[in-house]
UniProtKB/TrEMBL annotation, chain A:
The protein's name in its UniProt record: Malonate decarboxylase alpha subunit
The keyword Transferase is annotated on this UniProt entry: yes
UniProt keyword Acyltransferase, yes or no: yes
MF GO annotations: acyltransferase activity
UniProt organism field: Methylobacterium persicinum
Catalytic activity, EC: 2.3.1.187
A Pfam short name: Mal_decarbox_Al
Record keywords: Acyltransferase, Transferase
Record-linked NCBIfam families: mdcA
Top-level EC class: transferase
InterPro entries: MadA, NagB/RpiA_transferase-like
Automatic annotation (TrEMBL), chain B:
Protein name: Malonate decarboxylase beta subunit
Domain CoA carboxyltransferase N-terminal: 1-243
SUPFAM superfamilies per record: ClpP/crotonase
Organism placement in taxonomy: Bacteria, Pseudomonadati, Pseudomonadota, Alphaproteobacteria, Hyphomicrobiales
Keywords: Lyase
Automatic annotation (TrEMBL), chain C:
Source organism, top-level taxon: Bacteria
Pfam families the record matches: ACP (PF06857)
Compartments, as annotated in UniProt: Cytoplasm
Keywords assigned by UniProt, alphabetized: Cytoplasm, Phosphoprotein
Name the record gives this protein: Malonate decarboxylase acyl carrier protein
Naturally occurring in which organism (per UniProt): Methylobacterium persicinum
Length: 548, 304, 102
């Protein structure tokens, strides 16, 4: 007779072992190491919640302090490699294998440890891809998650940064795994139940509140004339041209400039209500003026942003909020929304090659993907029409029965031709290729593949890759907006003029934009303080962004 | 730029030249030693550093409401507005010329981190000479008014020069101090003063604090027109420069130390000044802050 | 510091009569440009001082495009560079030309 309950029994045994360190479900922070040593087994798949914003940092510290004699060979399956402890565990042998998605601040160390063989890498994923694998072949045995508060039954309030938590718990709890949550405080009654208590096995009261970075705050004071010019071109040449209402923005200064130009430049062009009304987006502070002036009707969020809580609470018609009033975010669902329900993804990148492949990898860093490739890709599973999607589809495909024609997601790269320290954005060959070879990755870490990119916008103009009909068109279209980089200077000038005549390349003057008008006075807010004023004092920026 | 619209032009964002253009009566500015004369730093090339045609300071004369002014404006974005040899000599020369010409006032648009490291001796000397020249101008009856609201703030020797002026106007973004935040942190440790805590920096050195404790005599919104109005007002009520004024100023500063010397944070000082809700001060807009200033005793004084 | 000088012949003089103009600030990633109407009406000279060595061909291309576009005859242009990107240089040059035409 087969034992159909082996996993269940093993789970019960882990929980039983953990109970020795708990009072009911509650475990003091000081006993977290003992708890983890009790519930973990060598070789376990473990999801240590490391989101974009909230970090299960107390549990990460505890895991790194476990005795490698008891806990070793773990297979970490987590979206973010963000804290030093996330990698420390690989140095001590506590962990061995890694499948992850994003490693921004730890990218250099990840590369070094991959090269040194300390990490056995499964793959670097996009968010949705990793979440999907939680339910198929990377299901965690143990999940270590983070929330703001819990009651003694384990009912969990995640706070506005709900992010990955529901997805992780779903995959772990319902497939015989153990869920350990760290919370800032144990309360009698949580403000709202984000995770029902019967899915949480242990609650650790953390010694310090979990760590959150203000990742999505862009100071308008740092916006340049070039970024404003690019933003003007994007608004007039793409948003207005295609009538893009449903979209996702990247997190760079370029898209932040667009957000700040909507109520000024966009208003002047008479585009209010016609573009940028529905977003899959974190609550960017630079979105405040566009919300306040009635441009933005609805925003669904992956996570929250430091300082935005009070503002969001007072704008429930725009944001998704719980009965308690605070934001409810959800990374998996917002990524899905960005992929299927948005007509455009627009964001920046570090390198673009002659075909249009792009990457944020530099020679020495494996930054991972996060969610950009999910939203910055054409979803072949999409079946509902919309004007922008259909127009893009028509541009891409000129032959065949219209009824069999499908649309195209607009995937727009918004870049300056040179980055920091005069590093060119346009290159012959992506650094990602070199890196893949060096550390033995089977796939080069390409952020957005060439066949998904529809437009590239630089200060020199817009290249519409949908209209390109062959490889030469495409290469010269890219060279034609690559400015004074070597790639740009290597253009075939006659061909570029031909592409301009065909509308594949459009210069500022072709769009009726005078570059000298790209002035900071166009920004709806020129400082963080201006954003505070727009919000009626509801936005509370972190100290590092203040100059008052 | 669509011409100098002084009601909209942000002082904080504007360049030294934009500030002067918008501050003075239109078309009235005459520059001395302008960029075409190329009086640049002889020292910076030795350090492989770029120079500026005006060495980061614009000096000359113009009119404000019809009255002749001598003006100097530092460019806070060039080497942090720091004093080098040429930069300092242009300022000192302007101040000395004021003794002969007797303009209605000298306006100093200070925007500086202090002395330029690469030419420190010349810079230090210039600061001493500038202070001396300010005192002489004031003694001769020419008010010297400092206008402070740029990115670089007013630090180091700039802070000393500010202390020598007849009157000071400051905006919220402006900072006045001698040691800058990073210097304090380096010397005293981040526990004592965390220079990255910008809220702390501003409530310790920023415009609102300086106005509340009487370190500045006018608080301006961040527009050129607000600074222009403040300048006109401060010129009109500039104090005489005599022994009585200095004795009164000395007494005021002594009383200030006695009263606030034990405070650990600017908000403690504001509470002692009778500000009802000190924590609310940083977020106040100009109108609300003006009302708060009107109720705090220290901000009103006649010395300087 | 690297010094570069480019001389061009133009088909016409830069419009306007303003003898001189200055724009920009020498700061990181920025530059200042001084324009002086002191040359014969069909000549333009651009002299650059930059702390970033090795970008001669880029400067040459930026200046050539500007001259072709603005036809700044009669003007000597002097640049103190703070490590500006080429697009910023182009923008400042055009801003300078506009100031001279005013």
């Amino acid at each position: 007779m087969a034992d159909w309950r082996g996993e269940r029994k093993a789970r019960d045994a882990r929980i039983e072992a953990g109970r020795a360190h708990a009072n009911g479900k509650v475990v003091p922070a000081g006993d977290a190491v003992a708890l983890l040593e009790a519930v973990l087994k060598p070789g376990d798949r473990v999801c240590l919640e490391g989101d974009n914003q909230k970090q299960a940092d107390c549990l990460a510290r505890a895991l790194s302090q476990c005795d490698p004699g008891k806990v070793h060979g773990l297979h970490m399956v987590q979206s973010g490699i963000v804290l030093p402890e996330h990698l420390d565990v690989f140095e001590t042998g506590i962990a061995e294998r890694l499948d992850y998605s994003y490693s921004g601040p730890q990218g250099a160390r990840v590369a070094k440890m991959l090269y040194g063989g300390q990490i056995k890498l499964g793959a670097v994923h996009t968010y949705l891809e990793l979440f999907a694998r939680y339910f198929i072949d990377l299901t965690p045995h143990v999940a270590l998650i983070a929330g703001v508060s819990a009651d003694r039954e384990g009912n969990l309030y995640t706070g506005p940064n709900t992010e990955d938590t529901p997805t992780i718990v779903e995959a772990t709890h319902f497939k015989n795994g153990v869920v350990v949550a760290q919370v800032n405080e144990i309360v009698d009654k949580v403000p709202r139940v984000d995770i029902p208590g019967d899915r949480v096995d242990f609650v650790v009261e953390a010694d310090t509140p979990f760590f959150v970075e203000p990742l999505f705050t862009r100071d308008p004071a740092a916006m340049t004339e070039t970024q404003i010019l690019i933003a003007m071109m994007a608004i007039k040449g793409i948003y207005a041209e295609y009538g893009v209402r449903r979209l996702n923005h990247g997190i760079g200064f370029g898209t932040a400039a667009i957000e700040l130009l909507l109520p000024t430049y966009g208003e002047k062009l008479g585009l209010k209500g016609e573009i940028a009304t529905h977003f899959a987006l974190n609550p960017h502070p630079t979105l405040i003026p566009a919300i306040e002036s009635g441009w933005v009707r609805q925003v669904h969020c992956f996570g929250s942003e430091v300082g935005m809580d009070r503002y969001i609470r007072e704008r429930p018609d725009v944001f998704f909020t719980g009965a308690d009033g605070s934001l409810r975010s959800n990374r998996a669902l917002c990524q899905t929304a960005g992929l299927y329900a948005c007509d455009m993804f627009i964001g920046a990148t570090l390198q673009i090659d002659l075909m249009g492949h792009s990457s944020t990898v530099t020679q020495s860093r494996v930054a991972g993907f996060g969610g950009a490739p999910n939203m910055g890709s054409d979803p072949h599973g999409r079946r509902h029409p919309s004007d922008p999607w259909m127009k893009a589809g028509r541009e891409a495909q000129i032959v065949g029965d219209p009824a069999l024609m499908r649309g195209r997601k607009l995937v727009v790269q918004l870049v300056e031709t040179f980055g920091d320290k005069l590093v060119p954005t346009f290159v012959e060959k992506l650094d990602a290729m070199e890196l893949a070879k060096k550390i033995g990755l089977e796939l080069a870490p390409v952020m957005i593949y060439a066949d998904d990119v529809t437009h590239i916008v630089t200060e020199e103009g817009i290249a519409n890759l949908l209209l390109c009909r062959d490889a030469d068109d495409r290469e010269q279209a890219i060279r034609g907006v690559a400015g004074y980089t070597e790639i740009g200077r290597g253009r075939d000038r006659a061909k570029v003029e031909e592409l301009r005549a065909r509308g594949i390349i459009r210069r500022p003057e072709d769009l009726g934009i005078e570059p000298l008008d790209a002035d900071r006075s166009l920004l709806a807010a020129r400082s963080i303080k201006d954003l505070v004023h727009w919000s009626g004092g509801l936005y509370e920026p972190p100290a590092r962004f203040r100059n008052w | 730029m669509a011409g100098p619209d002084r009601d909209r032009l942000s002082w904080y964002e504007a360049s030294a030249r934009q500030r002067l253009d918008a501050l003075l009566d239109p078309g009235s500015f005459t520059e001395v030693l302008g960029p075409a004369e190329r009086r640049m730093s002889p020292h910076l090339p030795l350090f492989d550093l770029p120079r500026a045609f005006d060495d980061g300071i614009v000096v000359g004369s113009g009119s404000l409401d019809g009255k002749t002014m001598f003006v100097a404006a530092q460019e806070g974005r060039f080497m942090g507005g720091a004093f080098g040899e040429v930069h300092g000599a242009k300022l000192v020369g302007l101040l000395r010329a004021a003794l002969d010409v007797k303009p209605a006032a000298v306006l100093l648009l200070l925007d500086t981190g202090g002395v330029r490291l690469q030419e420190a001796n010349a810079g230090e000397t210039a600061i001493a000479e500038a202070m001396r020249a300010i005192v002489a101008a004031r003694a001769a009856g020419v008010p010297v008014v400092g206008l402070i609201g740029g990115r670089a703030g007013c630090f180091g020797g700039g802070g000393l020069i500010a202390g020598t002026c007849s009157r000071l106007a400051v905006s919220e973004g402006g900072r006045i101090s001698v040691s800058g935040p990073e210097v304090i942190e380096t010397n005293k440790g981040a526990e004592e003063f965390d220079s990255k805590d910008r809220a702390l920096v501003w409530r310790t050195m920023g415009g609102k604090h300086r106005r509340l404790i009487g370190g500045a005599d006018a608080f301006c919104a961040d527009t050129v027109s607000a600074f222009r109005e403040a300048a006109l007002r401060l010129i009109a009520d500039a104090p005489a420069f005599d022994l009585d004024t200095l004795t009164a100023e000395q007494a005021r500063l002594r009383a200030r130390i006695d009263r606030f010397g034990q405070c650990r944070d600017a908000t403690d000082i504001w509470a002692k000044l009778g500000v009802n809700d000190p924590d609310a001060v940083p977020a106040m807009d100009t109108g609300a802050f003006d009302e708060t200033v009107a109720q705090a005793r220290e901000a009103v004084h006649d010395a300087r | 510091m690297e010094s570069l000088t480019f001389r061009h012949t133009t088909t016409k003089p830069l419009p306007g009569t303003k003898p001189q103009a200055i724009t920009g600030v020498v700061a990181s990633g920025n530059l200042e440009i001084l324009l002086e109407r002191v040359l014969p009406p069909d000549a333009c000279e651009v002299a650059i001082e930059t702390p970033v060595a090795g970008y001669g061909p880029v400067w040459e291309a930026v200046v050539a495009d500007f001259v072709a576009r603005a036809q700044p005859g009669g003007v000597r242009i002097s640049i103190n560079d703070g490590g500006a990107r080429p697009d910023t240089v182009s923008l400042r040059l055009l801003q300078g030309a506009r100031l001279m035409e005013a």
